[in-house]
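User: Zinc ABC transporter substrate-binding protein. Structure?
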Amino acid sequence: MKLKIFLISLCLVTLLSVACGGKKEGTPVQAESGGQAGPVKIVTSFYPIYIMTLNITQGIPGVEVVNMTQSITGCLHDYQLAPSDMKKLQDAQIMVVNGAGMESFLDEVISQEQDLKIVDASKGIELLKNESDGEANPHLWVSVSGAAAQVKNIGAQLAAFDPDHAAGYQANTAAYLEKLENLGKEMHTALDPVKNRNIVTFHEAFPYFAKEFNLDIVAIIEREPGSEPSAGELSETIDTVKKAGVAALFAEPQYPAAAADTIARETGARVFTLDPCVTGPLEADSYLKTMEENLAVLQEALK
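Assistant: Predicted structure:
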């Protein structure tokens, strides 16, 4: 009888030990040999990085992707973290960022969430410099080849940080890279024969795009988004447009086009809209669709 009571007590102690020894909430549970990988929450810094990460993670059980700065209508220039942003990061294991200086708040995130693994989408990629301030230009994703390089980075780093889902990340990365490669070929076929390659862009979001498709940005209307050009800068841009024979000015859907409209009235150039892919539907194919629309706009503007 005493032996029976002892065995029952031993079983109860064992069960309580297992129940109390679980993982802390928000920490990924690593798969045991032959077991299932635990849930992984990935937070992305802003829209284009979210779309890339969504493609790399889609269909992988247990992996959730959340975009931190959901309300951003443009780039992250001078963005200040909100309490709601930090709340999204509290139970995340991985954060994917654009890098190249885009996320000015990154140091604050790292200091407050020291266990958070950071995936840098721009790691090791050669960066262009802004003409205005000589700083690195972070808008890699606006170029199709730049986006492809960032996708490779994200896929490789996610696989390294989360080996339990590595096979899924690698397969999805390869599939999305194939789509981007086909898009790039389509755009080159359409744009390579264009003769008049001089364009004016709204701000410094398109240097990588222009380099990829051999377009010449002869002027930039606003060096900083939201900062209207001075009367002198506007006059200088108008002179440049006239001298270079620019037929097309490209505004962006996220910002007012008043300055572009003024230049158009003074020069006879037409205003078109190019989308730098910083906002849009939260769908895996939205980047591809936006770039297809940009291609159609360029074909009309430069014909």
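The two ends are 95 Å apart (CA to CA). Residues 26 and 91 are 4 Å apart (CA to CA).
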